């Protein structure tokens, strides 16, 4: 099959992954693409893809399950809404066949390699797509979800023979009955994980109760968590995808905490109940020794009379503090020194320079939203924001 007529399929310039499933089927059948399912080749690829989309400001997280992170992209899709991107992280997918082994129907077994810019298809993809035949893969991990998907494809004119439906039924029986609402939601969610919540109204789980709820299953009894996780930033993404235990130091202000990193630095963490559901988190309210721990942050300065001063508004720079690259500045009086947790607030301001900095945890006075007040700042390179050039040179790691 000559796939050149399909054209390239990656509008987001991704690397280290495949786009597979519905987007490829839609392109092959000349239908609008509803969403984009991304299958990373490695764990690091998964982390990089989501992090780059979020940190660039092009997309934001709206849903997180135990298998996928869903984002809305600022680009508008064929339906007039922001494009939906779902990045799978429940496994890695070095080859297209690794993806196909997880899929339920051959019509979904098409993939676009974002590195080679080539398509890969299951041997039955084109024949089954042309004849609108649903051919079931009994190795799929979520056959209960396949039953729901069968109905969806039948409404689009696809045909599932009796033998194929029997295969689905046997696969469901082999999978075993769910033993909790959480497990049922997970199986119904399929590859995307617990992307829905059943309205159980506190009823204890039994198979009989499940029958009652599923008997009335429609869009009024399924609650999606759309836009629930927009607060997730780059600092959270690696922890969500890796799923490793983390420790958060949570001092008594603003509801913010600090994650203790492997290199003994600390990163600001927004402590949300939803995050606790996703991660294995231990929260501590004190540390025996915090003097060697640092928060990595950003300092914005302007150049006045050959010196860098700490405010873009002269009236706010009343303490007269100046800053130098790779120097430590201390100030123990109010108003304190301040910095930003990320460098987003001052985008677009003219004559603004910035430096990646380190702040000793023991010197932090307060955290208000994106702003840290502190008595000490270790400066790194000072860079020109407008021209993206480094005015001073050196290594940031040497200051912490």
Describe the secondary-structure layout.
Layout: E1 17-20, H1 22-28, E2 36-40, H2 43-55, E3 59-64, E4 68-76, E5 82-88, H3 96-100, E6 110-113, E7 118-121, H4 125-131, H5 143-155, H6 162-175, H7 181-189, E8 197-198, H8 207-215, E9 222-223, H9 234-242, E10 246-249, E11 256-260, E12 266-270, H10 273-278, E13 281-284, E14 294-304, E15 307-309, E16 322-323, E17 328-330, E18 337-340, E19 353-360, E20 364-368, E21 371-374, E22 376-378, E23 382-384, E24 389-390
Parallel strand pairs: 2-5, 10-13
Antiparallel strand pairs: 1-2, 1-6, 3-4, 4-5, 6-7, 8-9, 10-11, 11-12, 14-15, 14-19, 15-16, 17-22, 18-21, 19-23, 20-21, 23-24
Distance between the termini: 57 Å
Name of the CATH superfamily of the largest domain: Beta Polymerase, domain 2
Number of domains: 2
Portion of residues in helices? 10-25%
Q: Which outline best applies?
A: elongated
Quick overview of this protein structure:
With 400 residues, the chain is an alpha+beta fold. It folds into two domains: 4-175, 2-Layer Sandwich (Beta Polymerase, domain 2), CATH 3.30.460.10; 245-400, no CATH class. Helix content is 23%, strand content 27%.
Overview of this structure, please?
This protein is elongated. It folds into two domains: 4-175, 2-Layer Sandwich (Beta Polymerase, domain 2); 245-400, no CATH class. Residues 219-225 have low confidence and may be disordered. The strands form six sheets. It has a seven-stranded mixed beta sheet. A six-stranded antiparallel beta sheet has the order 16-15-14-19-23-24, with no helix packed on it. It is α+β, with helices and mostly antiparallel strands. The protein has helices at 22-28, 43-55, 96-100, 125-131, 143-155, 162-175, 181-189, 207-215, 234-242, 273-278; strands spanning 17-20, 36-40, 59-64, 68-76, 82-88, 110-113, 118-121, 197-198, 222-223, 246-249, 256-260, 266-270, 281-284, 294-304, 307-309, 322-323, 328-330, 337-340, 353-360, 364-368, 371-374, 376-378, 382-384, 389-390. 23% of the residues lie in helices and 27% in strands. It is built from ten helices and 24 strands. The termini are far apart. Helix 2 packs antiparallel against helix 9 and helix 5 (143-155) packs antiparallel against helix 6.
């Amino acid at each position: 099959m000559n796939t050149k007529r399909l054209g390239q399929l990656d509008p987001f310039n991704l690397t280290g992954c495949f786009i597979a499933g519905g987007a490829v089927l839609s392109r092959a059948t000349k239908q609008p693409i509803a969403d984009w399912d991304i299958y990373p080749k490695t764990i690091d690829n998964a982390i990089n893809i989501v992090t780059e989309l979020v940190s660039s400001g092009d997309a934001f997280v709206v849903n997180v399950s135990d298998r996928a992170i869903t984002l809305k992209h600022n680009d508008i899709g064929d339906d007039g809404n922001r494009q939906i991107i779902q990045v799978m992280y429940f496994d890695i997918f070095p080859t297209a066949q690794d993806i196909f082994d997880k899929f339920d129907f051959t019509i979904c077994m098409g993939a676009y390699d974002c590195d080679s810019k080539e398509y890969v298809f299951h041997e039955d993809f084109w024949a089954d797509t042309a004849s609108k035949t649903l051919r079931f893969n009994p190795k799929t991990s979520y056959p209960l979800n396949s039953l729901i998907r069968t109905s969806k494809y039948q409404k689009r004119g696809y045909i599932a023979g009796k033998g194929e439906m029997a295969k689905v039924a046997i696969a469901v029986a082999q999978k075993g009955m769910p033993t909790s609402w959480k497990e049922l939601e997970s199986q119904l969610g399929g590859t995307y994980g617990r992307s829905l919540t059943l309205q159980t109204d506190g009823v204890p789980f039994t198979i009989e109760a499940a029958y009652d709820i599923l008997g009335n299953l429609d869009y009024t009894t399924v609650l999606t968590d759309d836009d629930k996780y927009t607060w997730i930033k780059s600092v959270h993404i690696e922890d969500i995808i890796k799923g490793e235990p983390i420790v958060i130091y949570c001092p008594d202000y603003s509801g913010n905490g600090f994650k203790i990193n492997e290199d003994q630095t600390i990163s600001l963490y927004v402590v949300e109940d939803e995050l606790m559901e996703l991660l294995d988190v231990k929260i501590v309210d004190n540390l025996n020794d915090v003097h060697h721990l640092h928060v990595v942050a950003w300092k914005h300065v302007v150049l006045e009379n050959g010196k860098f001063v700490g405010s873009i508004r002269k009236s706010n720079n009343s303490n007269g503090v100046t800053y130098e690259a790779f120097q430590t500045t201390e100030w123990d009086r109010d108003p304190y020194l301040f910095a930003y947790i990320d460098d987003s607030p001052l985008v677009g301001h003219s004559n603004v320079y910035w430096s990646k900095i380190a702040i000793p945890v023991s010197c932090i006075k307060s955290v208000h939203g994106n702003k840290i007040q502190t008595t000490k700042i270790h400066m790194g390179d000072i860079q020109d924001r407008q021209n993206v050039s480094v005015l001073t040179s050196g290594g940031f790691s040497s200051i912490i």
